Amino acid sequence: MLSSQPVLVPNEHGELFFMVVPGSDERKLNSSRKLVADSVIYDLEDSVPTNKKGAARQLVLEALESYDIGSTEKTVRINAVGSGLEIDDLNVVLRSKYLEALVVPKVQSAKDLEFVSRMIDSIAPDSSRANIRIIACIESALGIMNIREIAQADPRIDGLLFAAEDYAADTGLIRTKSRVEFLYSRQRVATTACAYGLQAIDMVCVDYQNPAILEEECLEGRQWGFTGKQAIHPKQLETIQQVFSPSEKDIERANKIIDKYNEHIKKGIGAFNLDGKMIDMPVVKWAERLLAKAKVMSRSTTRV
């Protein structure tokens, strides 16, 4: 017997990490076939020079159509709505029936995502149209201010992603090793995602040569409620996976809490003592949520 309240897991997919691959780099695109990641993001935006945008679209379309990457999700990051490049991006990549999700950068308002959703309805093949998900990137002060409306913009919205570098550029924040300057914005993204049952994807760790910094960022993000993290280098994947996955110790404790709760509820006892700590309904809900998340993740064959 569990609590009568529903357990809200971020989403049914359970992604942990997103590996970004430049859409104009044929070598890296080919290498993406070997990546053990939950989702590969073929990028048409920041990693692609302006004079290679057209070529990148065709390379990404080829990757969508011909690459066998197992159960790893095929995702494309388009250029921002209003950039003048987004329509060409969508006209090309939406032709593929293998596209599973779109990452929309620099989202300022719900209208940006409503436009993308209309393009999906107009262009995507009938066989895949209903299943294409949208991940909204929050990268500006205006995006943070409009985040509630963004989260509810369309049924296809599946996650909110925080992009630190663009946010710092937009707001004039000064980057520090402590990352304290991002505390408000990161926590707002994670909290809003939780409120609306979406994935919360944390910022890139740009110091990819320093595993200690990456682990610190991952622990911080998970503590704040993020469900996953972006990666820009394959060597980051294992750490992200390990930190964001429920540990055996966490799962064991969650199961123990549920078992003891069921025992006590039969006796008409609400709060009870377990290993010297008080257990009440908020703790029981935490245990239910963690076990639900662990169950979702166990379905994936790409875990390391």
Automatic annotation (TrEMBL):
What's the protein name?
Answer: HpcH/HpaI aldolase/citrate lyase domain-containing protein
Q: Which UniProt keywords apply?
A: Magnesium, Metal-binding
Q: Which residues bind substrate?
A: 77, 139
Gene Ontology molecular function: any one: magnesium ion binding
Q: Does the keyword Metal-binding apply?
A: yes
Q: Which residues form a coiled coil?
A: none
Upper taxonomic lineage: Eukaryota, Fungi, Fungi incertae sedis, Chytridiomycota, Chytridiomycota incertae sedis
One of its GO biological process terms is: oxaloacetate metabolic process
Q: Which InterPro entries does the protein's record reference?
A: Aldolase/citrate-lyase_domain, Citrate_lyase_beta/mcl1/mcl2, Pyrv/PenolPyrv_kinase-like_dom, Pyrv_kinase-like_dom_sf
User: Where is Mg(2+) bound in this sequence?
Assistant: 139, 166
Residues covered by the HpcH/HpaI aldolase/citrate lyase domain: 19-234
Q: Name one Pfam family in it.
A: HpcH_HpaI
Q: Which cofactor does it need?
A: Mg(2+)
- Source superkingdom: Eukaryota
